[in-house]
């Protein structure tokens, strides 16, 4: 029994040691999110439906062909299909027919439906691609949030390690009577505050990882993590372009704009289709039919009635009918007129939405451009502040080490450095993300390399 437990514990330990948390890169996160997002899958199904609608529209241009066959048996009173006279006997009948029809003209509605179906498939593709663009931006933002929180946590832990050394040294000085006990209490308070920062930092890392995992629709949070890497400010000349230049470039490829333009084209087709109902519809048909009945009587060459066989009757009684049908709309309770008016209103709404989307895109690019400049300056200012706070801290430490500064003033200098370090990390990743957003609107794929 003891040996069995030992073996089980050993196997459990091996399993734990072999299980490794997967560390995801930004590119892996983006690709996984695009491939596994439920909304993307729904939009892909909408795209497949649009392709089927296109097939339906093309099929409406083709002639129809249908066959029909029936067999029946009548007992008692019935009409003899040969001479249309009443009879009171048992009759077995077979009817076979085939028909075909085609619409020759319907106000070009079928042709316009084909064009509309093609446009709708393209519009659904633009909508799908626009969703993927949004997912890429959201995942990149969430990914950088995790990296930023991890860097801040590393800073908190490094600061706490330094404070532990100061705490150890201060204890020794207090025990030797060099510094008062109040200085030790101040350092202990600083250490406790830094421990709280570490706890909060760990919570922020966990929450940001959960948020990223949820964007990827991954529920195994414990085995999910991002790659351990730090990102520097990537070189970029995007600010060499004015917001107007970036907007003009975005107008040539942005999927949201392409989607809005496609909706205008779809609305224009809807107007054409609705107006087609004012025009006549011309269709043609052809039908072949034959029949058999065991009560059929026809005279032979000598004038003697007889019942032909099934095969003979199918050839004797077959026939073809064909013709054309013209439907001219005269009055339909204003339904056609109202449908045209509705489609024209839909067209105007689509045009207004396109203009609104253009304005939104221009405003977004203007804001993104301002954000890049703002966060670039904020990051530069944070670095200068950190440099100054670090020098002040080093000077304070020298004075504290020789007893020229009390522990409270020294802890304040240390706290200012910690805040400056946190600001540098925050503004750095804020700047990187805003920079990538602006580049994204210029057609540069999201990458941190």
Automatic annotation (TrEMBL):
A GO molecular-function annotation: efflux transmembrane transporter activity
Homology family: Belongs to the outer membrane factor (OMF) (TC 1.B.17) family.
Alphabetical list of InterPro entries matching this protein: OMP_efflux, TolC-like
PANTHER family per the UniProt record, alphabetical: OUTER MEMBRANE PROTEIN TOLC
Signal peptide residue numbers: 1-19
Record's keyword terms, sorted: Cell outer membrane, Membrane, Signal, Transmembrane, Transmembrane beta strand, Transport
Entry protein name: TolC family protein
Cellular component terms (Gene Ontology): cell outer membrane; efflux pump complex
Transmembrane segments: none
Compartments, as annotated in UniProt: Cell outer membrane
